[in-house]
């Protein structure tokens, strides 16, 4: 007896009165479309080519390439490889950075290779003759740090060992998405093989050159290799030059003299977070460029260099840091340096807010790092 339900009839009238005509789908999506399928014989006129918010996520909607494919399998060549390092068992405070690579990809959904011309520079890193791809994540064990780092070493070796797509230089460069900061050690071991000792520009609120005897190593040799000591170890292994620089430092040290003396011995100078108040972003750019002049450079960005207001989702947050704009201005200002590898690490999505503030920031940091690579192809030892 549906006729006796008057509200249902009323609803039907309302529904037809409110019928909405949407604009054509292709009209909205076209600028970010990949392959134009509007002429497809299956359903002509309907464009289903854009992958912006659809499909499996890759960093900046870049093509996924199975860079870790086994011997004999064909791998599409690339010049810049995005590589996830889901590892967080080397942290001293809040864990969770093993989900960082997934989170940063999520934060990068808005970035599209064909819609990325900067209003500041008119450049688009993805259209400058270098092929950038997402290699996915390295399978790393979460039960044994020694094994995990060996797995990461091996992945870097394989991925940087393939021949680049561009003809100018042969070695592809890697942008690692961390993962806790321990993962940078594997990246530096890999860059050493292709470029020798490099200067490190280390954006962080912490030194990360701690002597393993001071941080963890008193417990066991194994414990001494962690996200606060990896730069000390990189120095010990002869991977980095004594022309390296920290930027954004503000966290306390464990003693009056030793940590800072040890830091100097590891080859670093320090630009502190509050130096920005005195010399500004232009001063930072000048000092960083001056310090690494004439050498190959690795940039490591610990997202905790930002103030927790801009990057709450990290393991060892320190207040009194920079804004996202300040960091991006400094990074973009480094254009022209010979960047041979880079990373953005310590992103632990679980501590982010619903607006994904940290993930958006980390995705844009990676974008700036890719731009620096696109701006300056670099010759390797074997070129
Ligand atoms: C990759 O290499 C091929 C062959 O040299 C070239 O045609 C193509 O433009 C390159 N891709 C990119 C994105 O540069
Ligand atoms: C830096 O390293 C170079 C070359 O290895 C060396 O000649 C120089 O003495 C070192 N400088 C300092 C301050 O340690
Ligand atoms: Mn760090």
**Count of folded domains:** 2
The distinct ligands, each listed once, are: 2-acetamido-2-deoxy-beta-D-glucopyranose, manganese (II) ion
CATH architecture of the largest domain: 3-Layer(aba) Sandwich
Number of distinct beta strands: 8
Low-confidence parts:
8-13, 23-34
Helix content: 25-40%
- Quote the average pLDDT: 91
**Could you tell me the radius of gyration in angstroms?**
23 Å
**What's the total helix number?**
10
Order of helices and strands: HHEHEHEHEHEHEHEHEH
- Global shape: globular
Strand order of the largest sheet: 2-1-3-8-7-4-5-6
Our measurement of the CA-to-CA distance between the termini, rounded to an integer number of angstroms, reads 83 Å
CATH H-level homologous superfamily name of the largest domain:
Ureohydrolase domain
Fill in the CATH topology of the largest domain. Answer: Arginase, Chain A
The helix/strand class is alpha/beta
Strand content: 5-15%
The CATH top-level class label of the largest domain:
Alpha Beta
Q: Give the biggest sheet.
A: 8 strands, parallel
Cofactor: Mn(2+)
Family: Belongs to the arginase family.
Protein name: Arginase
Signal peptide: 1-17
């Amino acid at each position: 007896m549906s006729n006796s339900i008057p509200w249902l009839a009323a609803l039907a009238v309302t529904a037809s009165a409110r019928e909405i005509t949407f604009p054509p789908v292709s009209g909205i999506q076209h600028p970010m479309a990949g392959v134009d399928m509007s002429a497809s014989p299956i359903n002509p006129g309907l464009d289903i080519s854009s992958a912006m918010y659809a499909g499996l996520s890759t960093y900046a909607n870049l093509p996924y390439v199975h860079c870790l494919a086994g011997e004999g399998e064909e791998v599409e060549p690339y010049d810049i490889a995005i590589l996830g390092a889901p590892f967080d068992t080397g942290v001293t405070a809040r864990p969770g950075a093993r989900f960082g690579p997934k989170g940063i990809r999520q934060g990068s959904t808005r970035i599209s290779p064909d819609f990325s011309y900067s209003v500041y520079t008119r450049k688009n890193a993805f259209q400058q003759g270098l092929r950038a791809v997402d290699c996915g994540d390295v399978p790393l064990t979460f039960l044994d740090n020694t094994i995990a780092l060996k797995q990461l070493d091996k992945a870097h070796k394989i991925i940087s060992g393939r021949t680049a797509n561009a003809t100018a230089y042969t070695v592809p460069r890697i942008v690692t998405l961390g993962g806790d900061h321990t993962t940078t050690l594997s990246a530096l071991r890999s860059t050493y093989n292709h470029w020798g000792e490099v200067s490190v520009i280390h954006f962080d609120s912490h030194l990360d050159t701690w002597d393993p005897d001071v941080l963890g190593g008193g417990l066991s040799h194994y414990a001494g290799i962690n996200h606060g000591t990896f730069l000390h170890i990189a120095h010990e292994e002869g991977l980095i030059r004594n022309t390296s620089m920290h930027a954004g430092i503000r966290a306390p040290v464990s003693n009056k003299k030793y940590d800072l003396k040890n830091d100097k011995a590891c080859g670093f100078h320090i630009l502190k977070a509050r130096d920005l108040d005195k010399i500004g972003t232009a001063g930072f750019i000048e000092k960083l460029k001056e310090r690494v002049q004439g050498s190959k450079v690795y940039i490591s960005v610990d997202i905790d260099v930002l103030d927790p207001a801009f990057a709450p989702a990290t393991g060892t947050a320190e207040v009194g840091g920079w804004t996202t704009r300040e960091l991006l201005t400094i990074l973009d200002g480094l254009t022209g340096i010979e960047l041979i590898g880079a990373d953005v690490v310590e992103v632990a999505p679980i501590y982010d807010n619903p607006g994904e503030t940290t993930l958006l920031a980390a995705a844009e940091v990676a974008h700036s790092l890719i731009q620096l690579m696109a701006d300056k192809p670099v010759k390797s030892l074997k070129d």
